[in-house]
Amino acid sequence: GGDGQGLLGILHEIEDRAPLFFRAHSSSEWRTVGQRLGTATAADARALWAPLRVVCEGLRAGLAKAVALQSAEHEILRTAKVVFCTLAVSGRSALDGCLGADLLIIDEAAQCVEPESLIAIAAAQAQSCVLVGDPKQLPATVLSPTAASRGYSRSLMERLLQCGQQYTQLTTQYRMHPNITQLPNSLFYCGALEDDLSVQQGRRDCKWYRSVPCLGPLAFVNVGNGIELRTRDSYENAQEAHLLVMIVQHLLTKCQVQAHEIGVLTFYRAQVALLKTLLRSQLGSSAPVKVATVDGYQGSEKSVILLSFVRTEGAGFLGDFRRLNVALTRAKNALVMVGSARLLQQQQQSALGTMHMMLTALGLIYEEQELRRALL
């Protein structure tokens, strides 16, 4: 409105409801509005602008620095011999024209959706592309059932294999104790896996094996009285959780295993939360024992893996052989599984049932009370 009347009308309406900030083009405008409102003056405007000027100058300097860093990053990438990045980062506009490569290698290629691989392929403009991954382990996580049912969760690697693309299978494993290898080797790889000499000869048996066979290198502890409890969209099993905490305490105090060498895995988020709570109450926050879901641990490893199956009435996530494969292949020296042997036995037409038969034949299923006595 004329002479600021429209603005003044608005300010009068809202001045009692909230703090006000008014940006004027001149000190005279500040003076006019301030006099009519009885609040701000030109002096107030200058006092307010002083710290704002510092902020603006800082932002301007920061922007100039960002531009310089982007230019430096572009030059480094343009002249680099090897570039490591995630699939998503390879598609950044800042990297346009500087990722040209002779060879593109996509690791964990079976765990990403096809469009993710295409981002890197388009950005790298490479003459050759090598996909490295294991289609017998977990695929990409796709939250939409509709998208997953229409093939969105399928990786480029899986599609090429289905189309008859020739491939090279790597059969030598460098992680697991040979006693652990036998389980996934038989269940998922038709006996094709071979142990490298480093795990045949260099992997020393941990000393607690001899005194407590229930703790590895491969063992299944039957928690017969375990009860699965539904919590919202997940499950927990308190009996298994308390037993796992007892095992962790024994490894830390009696076996001189370092906390960072232990990983506690489970198939359900609710069990992860329960385990973290119990471990904090028993060990405090100083012991960095890793607790995670199986899905979040693909590609990682620990010297000792303690695995909680949780379920007692139905297989649920356990029925996916790819998830089970990931769970069984994270340990280097010891894999101790805790769960219901009865549930495994009931899954006769799945890998769980076959695993139960193998463990029974090898004499590696122990009762909870047997373990508790051994830990005393």
What does this structure look like?
The protein has about 375 residues and is of the alpha/beta class. The protein has 3 domains: about 80 residues, no CATH class; about 90 residues, P-loop containing nucleotide triphosphate hydrolases (Rossmann fold, 3-Layer(aba) Sandwich); about 200 residues, P-loop containing nucleotide triphosphate hydrolases (Rossmann fold, 3-Layer(aba) Sandwich), CATH 3.40.50. It contains 15 helices and 12 strands. It is globular, with a radius of gyration of 30 Å.
CATH architecture field of the largest domain: 3-Layer(aba) Sandwich
CATH superfamily of the largest domain: P-loop containing nucleotide triphosphate hydrolases
What is the overall silhouette?
A: globular
Distance between the termini: 86 Å
- Rounded to the nearest angstrom, the radius of gyration is 30 Å
Please provide the count of β strands. 12
CATH class of the largest domain: Alpha Beta
In this structure, how is the largest beta sheet organized?
Answer: 6 strands, parallel
Total DSSP helices = 15
| Helix and strand composition category | alpha/beta
At the fold tier of CATH, the topology name of the largest domain is Rossmann fold
Poorly predicted segments: none
* Domain count: 3
What is the overall pLDDT average?
84
Strand percent estimate: 5-15%
Q: Going across the major beta sheet, what is the strand order? A: 9-8-10-11-5-12
